[in-house]
C-alpha cells in the first residue's frame, strides 16, 4: 500500500491489478487449450506375411528326381535323361537356392509384421494417454481460479480490514506529523529568538565587565595621580620630560588623538572577544609565524591587541615589545606581565635609532591605517630593522568577497582594504627584498555547483559559459580570508 493511500484508492488499485491478472491467466489458459494434441491418423498394421506357396515350393523344388521303374520305359527314360540331365540339374540348383532364401526370411517377415503392429498400437495408446493428461490439466487449471478465489475471500476481507486500519493510523500519523512540524517550527523560532537574546545578553555582560574594569582602573589612576600631586615632585622644577616604559611622556597618547577615547576603549575589547575569536584561538592561528622570528631579539609587535603573539614570543624566549592605541588592551597585556606601550607605531618607531629592531610583526593592523600613514610606517620599518630581520604583515584579503563582506566592513576601525599585490608592491618599494604573499585561513569548502552537461539537455556553449562564470564566482568568494606579506630587509 502506498504511503497515506486512501481505502477507495487501494480497492480500485487492487481491482485493476486483479483484472489484469485474470486477463493474463485466461489468455494463457486459452493458449494452452488450443495447444492440446489430437490423435493423428496413424497407419494400419501391415497385413500378415503371405506363406501360401511356401509348403508347395518346399515339396516341388527338386525337378531332377528320376523314376525307379524297370523295363523298356526305364531304359528309354534313362537314355532321354542322359540327354536332358544337365539342364535339369541347373534348374534344380536354382530352385534349391530360391526355396532356401524364402525359408530363411519367413521368420524375419513374421517378426517385422508383429513389431510394426505392436508399435502402432503402443503409439496410439500413448497419444491417447497424453491427450487425456492435457485434458485433465486444463480442467485442473480451470478449477485453480475458483479455489484461489475462495481462499482469497477470507484473506482479502482481513486484508481490507487491516488496510483500513493501517490507512486510519497513517492518516492519524500524518496529522500528528504535520502538527509536530508546526510545533517544531514554532519551537525553532523561539529558540532562535532566545539564542539571539542570549547573545545580546552575553555581549552586554561582556561590555559591562569591561566597563567596570575600565572604571576601576581609571579610579585607581585618578587616586594615584591625586596622591602624586599632593606629595611628589617627580616632574621637577627644570620641566624636563619624564619617561614611562622607555617612551617620552610627551609622546604618550594624550598628545596624539588615539582612535577612540580611553574611556570607550573597553567596547572594542568586547568586539574583539566576540568577533575575532578567543585568545586561545588567535594564539593557535599566529603560532605558525614563530619560525620567522626564531633566534631574533628586540621584536616589535605593532598593534599587539590582547598580546597573543607576545605570549608566543615570550614562550620561545624572544625579547619583544608590543604597541597599541587601545588603552584597555594595553591594560589587559600589562596584567599578564607583557611589555606593552600605549602609543601609535609611527610615533614610537621615529624615536628609535636605525637598526634598533630585530623583527617587526603586525597582525590585522595595516587595514586600520590611512594610505599616507601606512607608507610612512613601511619607510620607517625599513630604516629601523637590522639587515636580515623579518617583517610580517598579516591582514584581511579583500580579494575574497566573503572576507570583505563578512569581516572587513563589520569592523568600524577598518580604514582601507589592501589587495595582496598592492601591499606587496609597497613593501618592496620601501626597500624590503624577497617579500612574498602567504595566503592563510581558507574559506570552508563550500562552492557554487557547476552544471554537468551530460545530465541535462542544454546547448553546450551555454553550459560552458555558465560553468566559467561559476568558476569566476568561486575564485572570488571561496578563497583565503587572510594573507601575510613576509619579507626581510
What is the strand and helix layout of this fold?
Layout: H1 7-34, H2 54-60, H3 72-231, E1 243-244, E2 247-248, H4 265-276, H5 279-286, E3 299-302, H6 308-315, E4 320-324, H7 327-335, E5 340-342, H8 345-350, E6 359-363, H9 371-384, E7 390-396, H10 401-408, H11 420-429, E8 433-442, H12 460-477, E9 480-488
Structural notes for this entry:
The protein is an alpha/beta fold. It has 2 domains: 7-178; 261-488, 3-Layer(aba) Sandwich (Rossmann fold), CATH 3.40.50. Helices cover 59% and strands 10% of the residues. The chain is built from 12 helices and 9 strands. The chain has helices at 7-34, 54-60, 72-231, 265-276, 279-286, 308-315, 327-335, 345-350, 371-384, 401-408, 420-429, 460-477, and strands at residues 243-244, 247-248, 299-302, 320-324, 340-342, 359-363, 390-396, 433-442, 480-488. The strands form 2 sheets. A 7-stranded mixed β-sheet has the order 5-4-3-6-7-9-8, sandwiched between helices. It is elongated, with a radius of gyration of 60 Å. The two termini are 79 Å apart. 19% of the residues are buried. The model is unreliable at 233-261 (pLDDT under 50).
Q: Care to give the gist of this entry?
A:
The protein is an alpha/beta fold and 489 residues long. The chain has helices at 7-34, 54-60, 72-231, 265-276, 279-286, 308-315, 327-335, 345-350, 371-384, 401-408, 420-429, 460-477, and strands at residues 243-244, 247-248, 299-302, 320-324, 340-342, 359-363, 390-396, 433-442, 480-488.
Amino acid at each position: 500500500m502506498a504511503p497515506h493511500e486512501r481505502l477507495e484508492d487501494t480497492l480500485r488499485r487492487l481491482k485493476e491489478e486483479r483484472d489484469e491478472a485474470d486477463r493474463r491467466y485466461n489468455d494463457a489458459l486459452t493458449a494452452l487449450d488450443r495447444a492440446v494434441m489430437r490423435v493423428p491418423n496413424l497407419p494400419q498394421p501391415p497385413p500378415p506375411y503371405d506363406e501360401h506357396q511356401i509348403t508347395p515350393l518346399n515339396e516341388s523344388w527338386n525337378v531332377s528326381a528320376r523314376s525307379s521303374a524297370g523295363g523298356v520305359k526305364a531304359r528309354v527314360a534313362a537314355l532321354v535323361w542322359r540327354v536332358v540331365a544337365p539342364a535339369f540339374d541347373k534348374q534344380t540348383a536354382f530352385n534349391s537356392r530360391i526355396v532356401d532364401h524364402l525359408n530363411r526370411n519367413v521368420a524375419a517377415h513374421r517378426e517385422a509384421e508383429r513389431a510394426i503392429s505392436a508399435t502402432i498400437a503402443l503409439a496410439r495408446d500413448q497419444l491417447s494417454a497424453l491427450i487425456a493428461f492435457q485434458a485433465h490439466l486444463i480442467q485442473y487449471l480451470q478449477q485453480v481460479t475458483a479455489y484461489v478465489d475462495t481462499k482469497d475471500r477470507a484473506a482479502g476481507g482481513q486484508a481490507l480490514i487491516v488496510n483500513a486500519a493501517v490507512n486510519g493510523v497513517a492518516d492519524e500519523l500524518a496529522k500528528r506529523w504535520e502538527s509536530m512540524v508546526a510545533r517544531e517550527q514554532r519551537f525553532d523560532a523561539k529558540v532562535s529568538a532566545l539564542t539571539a537574546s542570549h547573545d545580546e545578553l552575553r555581549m552586554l555582560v561582556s561590555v559591562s565587565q569591561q566597563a567596570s574594569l575600565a572604571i576601576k582602573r581609571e579610579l585607581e589612576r585618578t587616586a594615584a595621580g591625586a596622591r602624586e600631586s599632593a606629595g611628589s615632585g617627580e616632574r621637577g622644577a627644570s620641566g624636563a620630560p619624564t619617561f614611562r616604559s622607555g617612551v617620552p611622556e610627551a609622546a604618550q597618547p594624550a598628545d596624539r588623538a588615539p582612535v577612540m577615547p580611553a574611556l570607550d576603549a573597553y567596547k572594542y575589547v568586547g568586539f574583539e572577544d566576540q568577533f575575532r575569536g578567543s585568545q586561545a584561538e588567535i594564539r593557535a592561528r599566529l603560532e605558525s609565524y614563530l619560525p620567522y622570528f626564531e633566534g631574533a631579539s628586540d621584536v616589535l609587535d605593532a598593534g599587539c591587541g590582547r598580546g597573543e603573539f607576545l605570549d608566543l614570543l615570550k614562550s620561545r624566549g624572544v625579547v619583544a615589545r608590543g604597541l597599541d592605541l587601545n588603552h584597555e588592551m594595553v591594560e589587559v597585556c600589562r596584567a599578564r606581565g607583557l611589555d606593552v606601550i600605549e602609543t601609535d607605531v609611527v610615533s614610537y618607531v621615529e624615536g628609535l635609532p636605525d637598526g634598533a629592531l630585530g623583527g617587526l610583526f603586525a597582525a590585522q593592523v595595516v587595514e586600520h591605517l590611512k594610505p599616507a600613514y601606512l607608507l610612512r610606517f613601511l619607510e620607517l620599518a625599513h630604516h629601523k630593522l637590522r639587515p636580515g630581520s623579518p617583517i610580517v604583515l598579516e591582514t584581511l584579503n579583500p580579494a575574497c568577497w566573503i572576507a570583505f563582506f563578512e569581516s572587513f566592513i563589520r569592523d568600524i576601525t577598518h580604514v582601507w582594504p589592501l589587495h595582496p599585490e598592492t601591499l606587496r608592491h609597497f613593501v618592496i618599494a620601501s626597500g624590503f627584498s624577497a617579500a612574498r604573499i602567504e595566503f592563510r585561513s581558507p574559506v570552508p569548502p563550500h562552492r557554487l555547483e557547476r552544471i554537468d552537461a551530460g545530465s541535462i539537455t542544454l546547448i553546450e556553449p551555454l553550459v560552458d559559459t555558465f560553468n566559467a562564470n561559476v568558476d569566476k564566482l568561486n575564485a572570488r568568494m571561496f578563497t583565503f580570508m587572510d594573507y601575510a606579506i613576509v619579507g626581510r630587509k
